[in-house]
Amino acid sequence: MRPSAVRWGLRREVMVEPRADGGVDLLDPLYERIDHLDAATVRALDAGEPGALEALDDRLLRESPVADAARRAAWYARLRPEPCAPVVPRAELSGVAAAVAALGWGRAWREPERWRRWVEAGRAGNLLLPLEGLLEPEHAAAALAQAEALPLQPLRSAVVSANRAVVDDTVGGALGALRALLGDPSTRVAVGAALGRSLTGPLHLNLWRLAPGERMAVHPDGARYAGTVAIGLDREWTAGDGGAIAFGDPGPEGLVVRSRWLPHLGDALIFAPAAGTWHAVEPPVSRPRWTLSGWWFWPPDAP
Question: Contact 130/114 with Cβ under 8 angstroms?
Fold first, then answer.
Protein backbone atom coordinates (compact mmCIF):
# COMPACT_ATOMS: atom_id res chain seq x y z
CA MET A 1 0.00 0.00 0.00
CA ARG A 2 1.26 3.49 -0.79
CA PRO A 3 2.28 5.16 2.50
CA SER A 4 -0.02 8.09 1.80
CA ALA A 5 -2.95 5.71 1.25
CA VAL A 6 -2.87 4.84 4.94
CA ARG A 7 -4.07 8.37 5.60
CA TRP A 8 -7.05 7.78 3.32
CA GLY A 9 -8.51 5.40 5.92
CA LEU A 10 -8.96 2.52 3.49
CA ARG A 11 -10.38 -0.76 4.76
CA ARG A 12 -7.52 -3.03 5.73
CA GLU A 13 -8.17 -5.64 3.03
CA VAL A 14 -8.20 -3.14 0.13
CA MET A 15 -5.00 -3.37 -1.93
CA VAL A 16 -3.54 -0.36 -3.76
CA GLU A 17 -1.74 -0.85 -7.08
CA PRO A 18 -0.02 2.27 -8.58
CA ARG A 19 -0.49 2.99 -12.27
CA ALA A 20 2.00 4.58 -14.67
CA ASP A 21 -0.28 7.61 -15.19
CA GLY A 22 -0.14 8.58 -11.49
CA GLY A 23 -3.47 7.00 -10.68
CA VAL A 24 -4.10 3.83 -8.68
CA ASP A 25 -6.22 0.69 -8.83
CA LEU A 26 -7.98 -0.32 -5.61
CA LEU A 27 -8.47 -4.10 -5.43
CA ASP A 28 -11.36 -4.93 -3.11
CA PRO A 29 -11.60 -8.66 -2.31
CA LEU A 30 -14.64 -8.21 -0.06
CA TYR A 31 -16.84 -6.99 -2.92
CA GLU A 32 -14.73 -8.64 -5.63
CA ARG A 33 -14.25 -5.43 -7.60
CA ILE A 34 -11.56 -3.03 -8.79
CA ASP A 35 -11.91 0.75 -8.46
CA HIS A 36 -9.81 3.03 -10.64
CA LEU A 37 -8.68 6.44 -9.33
CA ASP A 38 -7.08 8.93 -11.71
CA ALA A 39 -4.04 11.06 -10.85
CA ALA A 40 -6.11 14.12 -9.96
CA THR A 41 -8.18 12.11 -7.48
CA VAL A 42 -5.03 10.66 -5.91
CA ARG A 43 -3.61 14.18 -5.45
CA ALA A 44 -6.87 15.31 -3.87
CA LEU A 45 -6.80 12.34 -1.49
CA ASP A 46 -3.17 12.99 -0.55
CA ALA A 47 -4.15 16.59 0.20
CA GLY A 48 -6.99 15.38 2.42
CA GLU A 49 -9.71 17.14 0.45
CA PRO A 50 -13.08 16.25 2.07
CA GLY A 51 -14.86 15.69 -1.23
CA ALA A 52 -12.34 13.08 -2.31
CA LEU A 53 -12.57 11.21 1.00
CA GLU A 54 -16.39 11.27 0.85
CA ALA A 55 -16.18 9.65 -2.58
CA LEU A 56 -14.30 6.74 -1.00
CA ASP A 57 -16.99 6.52 1.68
CA ASP A 58 -19.67 6.35 -1.01
CA ARG A 59 -17.92 3.30 -2.44
CA LEU A 60 -17.57 1.67 1.03
CA LEU A 61 -13.78 1.72 0.63
CA ARG A 62 -12.96 3.29 4.00
CA GLU A 63 -13.30 1.83 7.48
CA SER A 64 -16.69 2.53 9.08
CA PRO A 65 -19.38 0.71 11.07
CA VAL A 66 -21.20 0.02 7.80
CA ALA A 67 -18.04 -1.54 6.35
CA ASP A 68 -17.67 -3.70 9.47
CA ALA A 69 -21.23 -4.98 9.07
CA ALA A 70 -20.69 -5.71 5.38
CA ARG A 71 -17.45 -7.56 6.12
CA ARG A 72 -19.08 -9.65 8.82
CA ALA A 73 -22.11 -10.53 6.68
CA ALA A 74 -19.94 -11.42 3.69
CA TRP A 75 -17.78 -13.82 5.64
CA TYR A 76 -20.71 -15.47 7.40
CA ALA A 77 -22.23 -16.16 4.00
CA ARG A 78 -18.99 -17.42 2.47
CA LEU A 79 -18.13 -19.72 5.35
CA ARG A 80 -21.31 -21.73 4.76
CA PRO A 81 -21.01 -24.07 1.77
CA GLU A 82 -24.28 -24.10 -0.12
CA PRO A 83 -25.84 -27.35 -1.37
CA CYS A 84 -26.04 -27.88 -5.10
CA ALA A 85 -29.30 -26.83 -6.70
CA PRO A 86 -31.62 -29.84 -6.82
CA VAL A 87 -33.00 -31.04 -10.13
CA VAL A 88 -36.78 -30.57 -10.14
CA PRO A 89 -38.79 -33.32 -11.83
CA ARG A 90 -41.77 -32.17 -13.85
CA ALA A 91 -43.95 -34.15 -11.44
CA GLU A 92 -42.84 -31.93 -8.55
CA LEU A 93 -43.76 -28.78 -10.45
CA SER A 94 -47.12 -30.35 -11.27
CA GLY A 95 -47.54 -30.92 -7.55
CA VAL A 96 -46.96 -27.24 -6.84
CA ALA A 97 -49.47 -26.27 -9.54
CA ALA A 98 -52.05 -28.68 -8.11
CA ALA A 99 -51.58 -27.31 -4.58
CA VAL A 100 -51.93 -23.76 -5.86
CA ALA A 101 -55.16 -24.63 -7.66
CA ALA A 102 -56.60 -26.33 -4.57
CA LEU A 103 -55.93 -23.23 -2.44
CA GLY A 104 -57.35 -20.77 -4.96
CA TRP A 105 -54.07 -19.17 -5.95
CA GLY A 106 -53.63 -17.25 -9.19
CA ARG A 107 -54.76 -19.09 -12.31
CA ALA A 108 -51.56 -18.24 -14.19
CA TRP A 109 -49.60 -20.16 -11.54
CA ARG A 110 -51.66 -23.34 -11.85
CA GLU A 111 -49.64 -24.44 -14.87
CA PRO A 112 -46.36 -26.37 -14.40
CA GLU A 113 -44.81 -24.43 -17.29
CA ARG A 114 -45.16 -21.14 -15.38
CA TRP A 115 -43.32 -22.65 -12.43
CA ARG A 116 -40.66 -24.13 -14.71
CA ARG A 117 -39.88 -20.70 -16.18
CA TRP A 118 -39.80 -19.13 -12.73
CA VAL A 119 -37.38 -21.78 -11.43
CA GLU A 120 -35.12 -21.28 -14.46
CA ALA A 121 -35.10 -17.50 -13.83
CA GLY A 122 -33.59 -18.21 -10.42
CA ARG A 123 -31.13 -20.76 -11.77
CA ALA A 124 -30.05 -18.17 -14.35
CA GLY A 125 -28.83 -15.96 -11.50
CA ASN A 126 -31.67 -13.50 -10.81
CA LEU A 127 -31.49 -12.51 -7.14
CA LEU A 128 -35.09 -11.29 -6.79
CA LEU A 129 -37.86 -13.61 -7.95
CA PRO A 130 -41.31 -11.98 -8.04
CA LEU A 131 -44.52 -13.96 -8.37
CA GLU A 132 -47.03 -11.41 -9.64
CA GLY A 133 -50.67 -12.35 -9.19
CA LEU A 134 -49.84 -15.39 -7.07
CA LEU A 135 -53.10 -14.98 -5.13
CA GLU A 136 -56.51 -14.74 -6.73
CA PRO A 137 -58.24 -11.48 -5.68
CA GLU A 138 -60.81 -13.24 -3.50
CA HIS A 139 -58.12 -15.26 -1.70
CA ALA A 140 -55.97 -12.19 -1.15
CA ALA A 141 -58.97 -10.26 0.15
CA ALA A 142 -59.78 -13.08 2.59
CA ALA A 143 -56.18 -13.10 3.84
CA LEU A 144 -56.27 -9.32 4.36
CA ALA A 145 -59.61 -9.46 6.20
CA GLN A 146 -58.24 -12.15 8.52
CA ALA A 147 -55.04 -10.16 9.03
CA GLU A 148 -56.95 -7.04 10.06
CA ALA A 149 -58.81 -9.05 12.72
CA LEU A 150 -55.76 -10.70 14.31
CA PRO A 151 -54.33 -9.26 17.55
CA LEU A 152 -50.88 -7.78 16.92
CA GLN A 153 -47.94 -7.18 19.22
CA PRO A 154 -45.68 -4.11 18.89
CA LEU A 155 -42.06 -4.77 18.02
CA ARG A 156 -39.56 -1.97 18.59
CA SER A 157 -35.82 -2.42 18.11
CA ALA A 158 -32.88 -0.77 16.37
CA VAL A 159 -33.92 -2.54 13.16
CA VAL A 160 -37.72 -2.86 13.34
CA SER A 161 -40.56 -0.53 14.22
CA ALA A 162 -43.82 -2.36 13.46
CA ASN A 163 -46.59 -4.57 14.79
CA ARG A 164 -46.74 -8.29 14.07
CA ALA A 165 -48.44 -11.60 14.70
CA VAL A 166 -46.75 -14.98 14.30
CA VAL A 167 -48.61 -17.16 11.79
CA ASP A 168 -47.96 -20.65 13.15
CA ASP A 169 -49.72 -23.99 12.81
CA THR A 170 -52.55 -22.84 15.10
CA VAL A 171 -53.70 -20.16 12.63
CA GLY A 172 -56.41 -21.33 10.23
CA GLY A 173 -58.35 -19.62 7.48
CA ALA A 174 -56.72 -18.00 4.47
CA LEU A 175 -53.48 -17.22 6.34
CA GLY A 176 -53.23 -20.80 7.51
CA ALA A 177 -53.73 -21.98 3.94
CA LEU A 178 -50.86 -19.76 2.80
CA ARG A 179 -48.62 -21.21 5.49
CA ALA A 180 -49.59 -24.74 4.47
CA LEU A 181 -48.68 -24.09 0.86
CA LEU A 182 -45.34 -22.44 1.69
CA GLY A 183 -44.46 -25.41 3.89
CA ASP A 184 -45.60 -28.01 1.36
CA PRO A 185 -42.75 -30.33 0.23
CA SER A 186 -43.41 -29.64 -3.47
CA THR A 187 -43.23 -25.89 -2.88
CA ARG A 188 -39.97 -26.30 -0.98
CA VAL A 189 -38.47 -28.30 -3.85
CA ALA A 190 -39.51 -25.78 -6.53
CA VAL A 191 -38.46 -22.69 -4.58
CA GLY A 192 -35.26 -24.39 -3.43
CA ALA A 193 -34.38 -25.17 -7.04
CA ALA A 194 -34.85 -21.53 -8.00
CA LEU A 195 -32.69 -20.36 -5.08
CA GLY A 196 -30.08 -23.09 -5.45
CA ARG A 197 -30.34 -24.32 -1.87
CA SER A 198 -32.20 -26.79 0.30
CA LEU A 199 -35.39 -25.58 2.00
CA THR A 200 -36.02 -28.62 4.19
CA GLY A 201 -35.59 -26.68 7.44
CA PRO A 202 -38.32 -25.05 9.58
CA LEU A 203 -40.61 -22.34 8.17
CA HIS A 204 -41.27 -19.18 10.20
CA LEU A 205 -44.01 -16.78 9.08
CA ASN A 206 -45.03 -13.34 10.40
CA LEU A 207 -47.91 -11.02 9.65
CA TRP A 208 -46.69 -7.39 9.64
CA ARG A 209 -48.54 -4.11 9.96
CA LEU A 210 -46.48 -0.95 9.48
CA ALA A 211 -48.21 2.31 10.36
CA PRO A 212 -47.11 5.52 8.60
CA GLY A 213 -43.57 6.32 9.70
CA GLU A 214 -42.74 2.80 10.87
CA ARG A 215 -40.03 0.87 9.02
CA MET A 216 -37.45 -1.90 8.95
CA ALA A 217 -33.90 -0.57 8.76
CA VAL A 218 -31.21 -1.83 6.39
CA HIS A 219 -30.30 -5.48 7.04
CA PRO A 220 -29.18 -8.56 5.08
CA ASP A 221 -31.46 -11.20 6.78
CA GLY A 222 -28.46 -13.03 8.24
CA ALA A 223 -26.93 -16.45 7.79
CA ARG A 224 -29.70 -18.45 9.49
CA TYR A 225 -32.15 -18.09 6.61
CA ALA A 226 -32.05 -20.19 3.43
CA GLY A 227 -34.89 -18.33 1.68
CA THR A 228 -37.09 -15.27 2.27
CA VAL A 229 -40.67 -14.78 1.09
CA ALA A 230 -42.92 -11.69 1.22
CA ILE A 231 -46.60 -11.56 0.19
CA GLY A 232 -48.31 -8.21 -0.32
CA LEU A 233 -51.74 -7.59 1.21
CA ASP A 234 -52.39 -3.98 0.18
CA ARG A 235 -55.15 -2.75 -2.14
CA GLU A 236 -54.30 -0.32 -4.96
CA TRP A 237 -50.84 0.37 -3.53
CA THR A 238 -48.77 3.02 -5.29
CA ALA A 239 -45.13 4.10 -5.25
CA GLY A 240 -46.30 7.29 -3.50
CA ASP A 241 -47.63 5.19 -0.62
CA GLY A 242 -44.05 4.21 0.28
CA GLY A 243 -43.61 0.93 2.12
CA ALA A 244 -41.46 -0.69 -0.59
CA ILE A 245 -38.87 -3.35 0.12
CA ALA A 246 -35.81 -1.49 -1.17
CA PHE A 247 -32.73 -3.46 -2.26
CA GLY A 248 -29.29 -1.92 -2.74
CA ASP A 249 -25.89 -1.16 -1.27
CA PRO A 250 -25.41 0.39 2.19
CA GLY A 251 -23.38 3.58 2.37
CA PRO A 252 -22.62 6.41 4.78
CA GLU A 253 -25.73 8.32 3.65
CA GLY A 254 -27.99 5.27 3.77
CA LEU A 255 -29.02 2.60 1.30
CA VAL A 256 -28.20 3.25 -2.36
CA VAL A 257 -31.35 1.69 -3.80
CA ARG A 258 -31.07 -0.55 -6.89
CA SER A 259 -34.66 -1.82 -7.03
CA ARG A 260 -37.94 -1.70 -5.09
CA TRP A 261 -40.77 -4.19 -4.62
CA LEU A 262 -44.24 -2.85 -3.81
CA PRO A 263 -46.58 -4.95 -1.61
CA HIS A 264 -49.48 -5.17 -4.08
CA LEU A 265 -52.42 -7.29 -2.96
CA GLY A 266 -51.75 -10.89 -3.99
CA ASP A 267 -48.18 -10.44 -5.28
CA ALA A 268 -45.21 -12.26 -3.75
CA LEU A 269 -41.43 -11.96 -3.78
CA ILE A 270 -38.84 -14.64 -3.00
CA PHE A 271 -35.08 -14.27 -2.70
CA ALA A 272 -32.08 -16.04 -1.20
CA PRO A 273 -30.57 -14.06 1.71
CA ALA A 274 -26.85 -13.48 1.26
CA ALA A 275 -24.16 -10.93 1.98
CA GLY A 276 -25.25 -8.96 -1.10
CA THR A 277 -28.99 -8.81 -0.42
CA TRP A 278 -29.04 -5.69 1.75
CA HIS A 279 -32.58 -4.36 1.96
CA ALA A 280 -34.94 -2.23 4.02
CA VAL A 281 -38.69 -1.72 4.30
CA GLU A 282 -39.35 1.96 3.71
CA PRO A 283 -41.96 3.73 5.86
CA PRO A 284 -45.50 3.86 4.48
CA VAL A 285 -46.65 7.43 3.99
CA SER A 286 -50.34 7.79 4.78
CA ARG A 287 -51.91 4.37 5.38
CA PRO A 288 -50.99 1.06 7.00
CA ARG A 289 -48.95 -1.49 5.09
CA TRP A 290 -49.86 -5.17 5.49
CA THR A 291 -47.61 -8.05 4.43
CA LEU A 292 -47.01 -11.68 5.22
CA SER A 293 -43.33 -12.51 5.28
CA GLY A 294 -41.11 -15.25 6.51
CA TRP A 295 -38.13 -17.51 6.09
CA TRP A 296 -37.25 -21.09 5.40
CA PHE A 297 -34.41 -21.83 7.82
CA TRP A 298 -31.40 -23.90 6.86
CA PRO A 299 -32.01 -27.58 7.68
CA PRO A 300 -30.59 -28.67 11.04
CA ASP A 301 -27.92 -30.82 9.36
CA ALA A 302 -26.68 -28.05 7.04
CA PRO A 303 -22.90 -27.43 7.28
Answer: no
The number of domains in the chain is 2
- Model confidence over 231-280: pLDDT tens digits? 999 999 999 999 999 999 887 777 889 999 999 999 999 999 877 788 99
- Whether residue 274 is found in the same domain as residue 150: yes
Predicted confidence (pLDDT) per residue in 60-83, tens digit: 788 888 777 777 766 665 555 454
CA quadruple 56, 257, 29, 73: dihedral sign: positive
- Whether 78 is covered by a domain: the verdict is no
Q: Which of 16, 125, 14 has the alpha carbon at shortest distance from 71?
A: 14
CA geometry: angle 20, 25, 26, nearest 5 deg: 155
pTM, two decimals, is 0.70
Which range of residues forms the domain containing residue 173? 90-297
d(CA 247, CA 242): 14
